[in-house]
Specification:
The chain is α/β, with parallel strands linked by helices. The chain has one domain: P-loop containing nucleotide triphosphate hydrolases (Rossmann fold), CATH 3.40.50. It is about 55% helix and about 10% strand. It has a 5-stranded parallel sheet with strand order 2-3-1-4-5, sandwiched between helices. The longest helix is centred in the last third of the chain and has 19 residues, at about 200-219. It is globular. It starts with 6 loop residues before the first strand and ends with a helix. It binds adenosine-5'-diphosphate and cytidine-5'-diphosphate. Adenosine-5'-diphosphate binds near residues 14, 15, 20, 200 and 203. Adenosine-5'-diphosphate binds near residues 14, 16, 199 and 203. Keywords: ATP-binding, Cytoplasm, Kinase, Nucleotide-binding, Transferase. It comes from Futiania mangrovi.
Length: about 220
C-alpha cells in the first residue's frame, strides 16, 4: 500500500477525449479531476489579453507565476485562439516549471478530501505523475478529432470552419510532440485508448474497466 490515494494520468493529442474520460472517471470513482490544459490555456489567454506575445518567455512566465484558480473558469479558454496560445506558452520551460508544483500537489492532496485524483494533459504520465496507478494515452484520427471539436465549438456559437479546426489541431500536435520541454509522448507503461471507432459511452466503459484493474492491482 502506498500512502497517497490513487492517481490516474490521462494524456493524448488535442480533442482526443481526455477531458470527457477524465471527468467520467472522476464522477464514477469519486475522485477529483484536473484538466491541466485549462492551466496552459489560462496562461496563453492572459498573455494575449495583456497584448503580449505568447512566445515571449518573460511575459509568459510572469503570467504563469501570477495564475489564480479563478482564471480557469473563463469560457474564452475553450476557443481555438486560447488553445493555440496555450501550445506556444507550453513550450517555454519556465512556464512548465512554474505550473508543476500546483499539478503535483493536486495529485498528492486532491481537493475536497477526494480519495483519488484524475489529471489529464500531455505530460501527466511522463513528468507530472510518473508513478501514477494507471496511465492512459487517449487518441483518435485527426479528422475525427477535428469533427468532434468543430461540433463542440459550433454548439458554443464559434463560427470556425472544420478545416481551420483540423489545421489548428495538426499544428498544435506537431508543436506539442516536437518541443524539448516535456514533449507529448506516450509513456512506455501507458495503455493506448484509440477512440476513433468508439462512442463516448464505450470509451468511458473501457477506461472504467482499466481503472478497476489498476485499483485492484494496487491492493
Ligand atoms: N468517443 C467519442 N465519441 C464522440 N465524441 C467524443 C468522444 N470523446 C470525446 N468526444 C467529444 O469530442 C470533443 C473533444 O473531447 P474532449 O474530452 O474535450 O477532448 P480533450 O480533453 O482531449 O481535448 C468533445 O466535444 C467531446 O464531447
Ligand atoms: N499537461 C499539459 C496540458 C496541456 N498542454 C498544452 O496546452 C494546450 C491546450 O491543452 P488542452 O488539453 O486544453 O487541449 P485540447 O486537447 O482540449 O484541445 C496543448 O496543446 C498543450 O500545448 C501541455 O503542454 N501540457
Amino acid at each position: 500500500m502506498t500512502a497517497r490515494g490513487p492517481v490516474i494520468a490521462i494524456d493524448g493529442p488535442a480533442a482526443s477525449g481526455k477531458g470527457t474520460i477524465g471527468r467520467a472517471l472522476a464522477r464514477h470513482f469519486g475522485f477529483a479531476h484536473l484538466d491541466t490544459g485549462a492551466i496552459y490555456r489560462a496562461v496563453g489567454h492572459a498573455v494575449r489579453m495583456a497584448g503580449d506575445d505568447p512566445a515571449d518567455p518573460a511575459a509568459a512566465e510572469a503570467a504563469a507565476r501570477a495564475l489564480t484558480p479563478g482564471q480557469l473558469d473563463d469560457p474564452a479558454l475553450r476557443g481555438e485562439a486560447a488553445g493555440a496560445a496555450a501550445s506556444v506558452v507550453a513550450a517555454i520551460p519556465g512556464v512548465r516549471a512554474a505550473l508543476l508544483d500546483f499539478q503535483r500537489d493536486f495529485a498528492a492532496h486532491p481537493p475536497g478530501g477526494a480519495p483519488g485524483a484524475v489529471l489529464d494533459g500531455r505530460d501527466i504520465g511522463t513528468v507530472v505523475c510518473p508513478d501514477a496507478d494507471l496511465k492512459l494515452f487517449v487518441t483518435a484520427a485527426a479528422e475525427t478529432r477535428a469533427r468532434r471539436r468543430h461540433l463542440e465549438l459550433s454548439r458554443r456559437g464559434d463560427r470556425v470552419t472544420e478545416a481551420d479546426v483540423l489545421a489548428d489541431i495538426r499544428a498544435r500536435d506537431a508543436r506539442d510532440a516536437g518541443r524539448t520541454a516535456a514533449p507529448m509522448v506516450r509513456a512506455g507503461d501507458a495503455r493506448l485508448l484509440d477512440t476513433t471507432e468508439m462512442d463516448i459511452d464505450s470509451a468511458v466503459a473501457e477506461a472504467i474497466r482499466l481503472t478497476e484493474d489498476a485499483l485492484r492491482a494496487r491492493g
